Amino acid sequence: MAIVQIKRETTDAGRKFRAAFENMAKQETRELVGVGWWGDQTHNLTGASLSSIAYLQEYGGITVDEEGEKAFIPPRPFLSPTYHSKRNEWAKKMASGIRDEIKSGEGDSIKAIKKVAEDAKGDIVQKIESIHNPPLAPLTIHLRKKRGNRSRKPLIDTGQFVKSVEARILK
């Protein structure tokens, strides 16, 4: 009877993959991605929370304008449509990013998460910039003109709102 002994060797690529995978497993993998406006961000002109402004613009509602008048803000959704149209793409990018991190030997899942968060931020900004309807109310146009702004573009007055979108990793 012959005895066969099989020796299993790991290649450099195999060791690299294992190290990257173990590194990823050691990381805290409960991170969530948040993209939007945060409670600590306020509007330069009004002092209002940018997250409140985002909510009001997304869903519509009643606000008090700069002259103390109540005004109806129609919904101009940008978060929900972006999420629904891009979520599958973001998921694929996340899977691809993690796969690339393992292949590179780094296994840094946080790096992959941050990349997708930045992509999501760009998609939200692009959606905001594409909104033209419903048009601004005559009162809004009047208030903008008083400040020297002749723009009739919804969601972009001073530019602060769109420039303040942030991608954050939440633990």
Task: Write the SSE topology.
Elements: H1 12-26, E1 32-36, H2 50-59, E2 61-64, E3 70-73, H3 79-104, H4 109-130, H5 138-146, H6 160-163, E4 166-170
Antiparallel strand pairs: 1-4, 2-3
Helix pairs in contact: 1-3, 3-4
Written description of the protein model:
With 171 residues, the protein is mainly alpha-helical. The chain has one domain (30-170). It contains 6 helices and 4 strands. A two-stranded antiparallel ribbon has the order 1-4. Helix 1 packs across helix 3 and helix 3 runs antiparallel to helix 4. The longest helix has 26 residues, at 79-104. The N and C termini lie far apart (60 Å).
Spell out the key features of this protein.
single chain, 171 residues, mainly alpha, two-stranded antiparallel ribbon, two-stranded antiparallel sheet, 6 helices
Structural category is mainly alpha
| Average pLDDT taken over every residue | 80
Rg (CA only): 24 Å
The percent of residues in helical segments reads 40-55%
Give the tally of structural domains. Answer: 1
Q: Give the termini separation.
A: 60 Å
